[in-house]
Write a structure and sequence with these properties.
Elements lengths: L2 H16 L6 H9 L3 E2 L1 E6 L4 E6 L3 E4 L4 E7 L5 H6 L2 E6 L5 H7 L3 H4 L6 E3 L5 E3 L4 E13 L2 E13 L12 E3 L2 E3 L7
Antiparallel strand pairs: 1-11, 2-3, 2-6, 4-5, 5-10, 6-9, 7-8, 9-10, 11-12
């Protein structure tokens, strides 16, 4: 990233915090709870063991090159491992994996305690069994913004379950503080 781009990001983040009078954290959180998000779990190897967490801020950024992003709060128990990581895996969860979303949203000690739920791929990152789609990502840049860090990564491997069972084709969503499945609308 160029120095001018970095300065622009810093200036825009500073300007945003200075020019947001009247918008309290609880108002902001309440408004965004109304926007549904796909549920992902990010996993990586920290050098001292596997690390993972639930993330709903996942986004596709670019097709060429294939870039994705997600946010992690600076108070997360996983932030140190993310800042040191060269690569990670982003799991796009199916509705049948709500138990994993809940598990990875809890205490870090519980996340990988059941070794029947995951394995390692050749490059060393932990991968969760039964995930319809997962992406291996090389970290391209970390951008501090507000109380979070935006992680941008280049997708170097995309794995899709070649024969997902019917229930595994449906993505897991998070909306209004609860997990959901999408329902097709009548046309």
């Amino acid at each position: 990233m160029s120095l001018s781009m970095s300065n622009a990001l810093e200036c825009s983040a500073t300007a945003a915090s200075e020019h947001a009078p009247g918008v309290r954290g609880d108002q902001y959180r309440s408004a965004l709870r109304r926007h549904p998000a796909g549920v992902t779990i990010v996993t990586l190897e920290s050098g001292s063991g596997p690390v993972g967490f639930t993330a709903t801020s996942f986004a596709s950024l670019s097709l060429d090159p294939p870039l994705v992003s997600f946010n992690i709060t600076d108070t997360s128990s996983s932030i140190g491992a993310v800042r040191s990581a060269e690569s990670l895996v982003i799991h796009l969860l199916g509705e049948h994996q709500q138990h994993l979303a809940q598990r990875f949203a809890r205490s870090a000690a519980e996340r990988f305690s059941d070794e029947s739920l995951w394995t390692r791929i050749e490059s060393g990152e932990p991968v969760l069994h039964g995930t319809p789609v997962w992406l291996r990502v090389v970290v391209d840049r970390l951008i501090p913004l507000g109380d979070s860090t935006l992680v941008v990564g280049v997708v170097v491997r995309a794995h899709e379950d070649p024969n997902p069972a019917e229930g595994k084709r449906i993505p897991l969503l998070y909306h209004e503080g609860a997990y959901h499945r999408p329902v097709a609308l009548e046309e």
